[in-house]
Amino acid sequence: MRTWFQRLVDTLAVTQTEETLRKAVADLVQDLGFGGFAFLHVEPARTIAVSNYPEEWQERYLDGNYPAIDPIVKIARSRMRPFNWVTGNPRSAENQEIRNFYEEANDFGIRSGISIPVRTAFQYVSMLTLASDKSMLRLESDIDQTAAVTAVGYLHAKIEQQDRGVVRSGVCELTPKQALCLKWSAEGKTMRDIAVLEDMSFATVNFHLNNARKALDAGSLAQATAIATRLRLI
């Protein structure tokens, strides 16, 4: 699969929109023998999902907050390495909620697959899943972990870039340090926490946050994080 992941990276390099990206990845996934794919990135304030799964399933998954109960997502976060999976017999699931989830997934032809998680900024996780309607999954070769993680990391960056490109703000600009400190603040970290996380002094963190607040013409740090989030500066 090393060659396939390189093809994925090469293809992503020339896609300019989410629609062309979705079609390109879907074509590559089919070449590999899978029926569908899903890219998922979940944060408390937003979820990014790009997939060629049936529209009805995508809507159910996001509207029903399925990422919170999806066993594959939980495994991905705990293992943080590529892995194969099968839904198996839904009746053997540990509880009714997961049983219902597996039954719905099976109804939409999602019965087995490969999931590749990667760690992203601010300790969040993105994952790419290749799904099949087959009850058993047999790979011709092992997954090259380095190639897989590199490709999915590039996919995350490409989708993140396209997602942020939707909104352009000419109101102000933040320096990288200002944006970094403000993002950590938005994640609930104190200035002392940020100083430890980014190996800065407390005074330096305070300096960057204060300048960010001024740049955004905000009266408080809380207001600054709200404005920066709305303008998609962080």
Automatic annotation (TrEMBL):
Residues annotated as domain HTH luxR-type: 167-232
PROSITE patterns, sorted: HTH_LUXR_2
Source species of the chain: Pleomorphomonas carboxyditropha
MF annotations from Gene Ontology: DNA binding
Name by which UniProt lists this protein: Autoinducer-binding protein
Keyword ATP-binding: no
Keyword Transcription regulation: yes
Domain of life: Bacteria
Entry keywords, A to Z: DNA-binding, Transcription, Transcription regulation
Pfam families on file: Autoind_bind (PF03472), GerE (PF00196)
GO BP: regulation of DNA-templated transcription
